[in-house]
Structure prediction request, 51 residues.
Amino acid sequence: MHVVAAVALAAFPAVTGVMYMVTSGCLRTLVPVRLGTGRLLVTVAVARSAA
Prediction:
């Protein structure tokens, strides 16, 4: 039982670090895509209202 607990405690920071890296990586790729999509929609709306 102690071995399982030790392994779990040792693995937890590694899993957390990997999750953090994956999450931050997803956010870094998603945020610019969202911003780009928003700008595109704004541009289309402005172009439509101007035309």
